[in-house]
Design goal:
Order of helices and strands: EHEEHEEHEHEHEHHE
Strand order of the largest sheet: 3-2-1-4-7-9-8
Shape: globular
Number of strands: 9
Structural class: alpha/beta
Radius of gyration: 17 Å
Low-confidence stretches: none
Oligomer: single chain
CATH superfamily: Vaccinia Virus protein VP39
Number of helices: 7
Number of domains: 1
Bound molecules: S-adenosylmethionine
Helix content: 25-40%
CATH topology: Rossmann fold
Strand content: 25-35%
Largest sheet: 7 strands, mixed
Length: 204
């Protein structure tokens, strides 16, 4: 007789998912797609912007930490999909965050470029072969650090099978359904376009 085994749930990781709506996108997806296991990684507490505790679906594990520490908790070659909306590529790592996992410190431990490069390498290690990573970023002329450039540089020496960069119209941001995609989509002034939006898809 063939023994009954439960197939392992596929794993989806959302990086920088808390934002201002208590990771609503991740919680909604986890509720809707019970056959997947979701992992959220964000240094902000998921309850930070609510007075009531948000309910966390059983198939969502939220890790409160900076990206590298959080990603390291995942098993190598175990992840099917990693996504990040307006988070990875946009940030540097501060000394205090590295040590205590808390906010704020004037001293930078890793620059935007170095931090993004390490995140990319870890994402590659954690993805299964054929697994995907999708990063949505904005580029503002006012921003000193260009998230798209940081990601492109970060993957330069990593053997992803496929790299695809697409521009996103503010209209398309609506499909992303995160707080920041709505906010940024609405901030675009017609004819002026201070922001440009990109989706970077990587396949291991
Ligand atoms: C601009 S918000 C985007 C939130 C959400 N993805 C959205 O689209 O609404 C950036 C998120 O990344 C998180 N974040 C920033 N730097 C981080 C770091 N070094 N490690 C982990 N999370 C970080 C912030 O706490 C915040 O939740």
């Amino acid at each position: 007789m063939i023994p009954k085994t439960t197939p392992k749930k596929r794993i989806i990781v959302h990086l920088g998912n808390v934002g201002y709506d208590s990771a609503r996108k991740t919680r909604t997806y986890a509720d809707r797609f019970n056959e997947f296991k979701f992992v959220g990684i964000d240094k902000k507490n998921i309850h930070a912007h609510t007075t009531n505790k948000v309910s966390i679906p059983k198939n969502l594990k939220q890790i409160e930490s900076e990206f590298l520490t959080g990603i390291l908790k995942l098993k190598d070659k175990s992840v099917d999909l990693i996504t990040s909306d307006f988070a990875v590529g946009h940030y540097a790592l501060k000394e205090k965050e590295k040590i205590h996992g808390s906010f704020g410190s004037p001293k930078t431990y890793l620059s935007h470029k170095e931090y993004t490069e390490r995140i990319m390498q870890l994402c590659y290690n954690k993805l299964k072969v054929g697994g995907k990573a999708i990063f949505v970023v904005f580029v503002s002329p006012l921003e000193e650090n260009n998230a798209l450039g940081n990601i492109k540089l970060g993957i330069k020496n990593i053997p992803f099978q496929k790299v695809d960069v697409q521009t996103l119209s503010p209209e398309k941001l609506k499909n992303i359904s995160s707080h920041w995609s709505r906010f940024l989509g609405m901030s675009v002034i017609e004819g002026q376009e201070p922001y440009k939006f990109y989706r970077i898809t990587l396949v291991k």
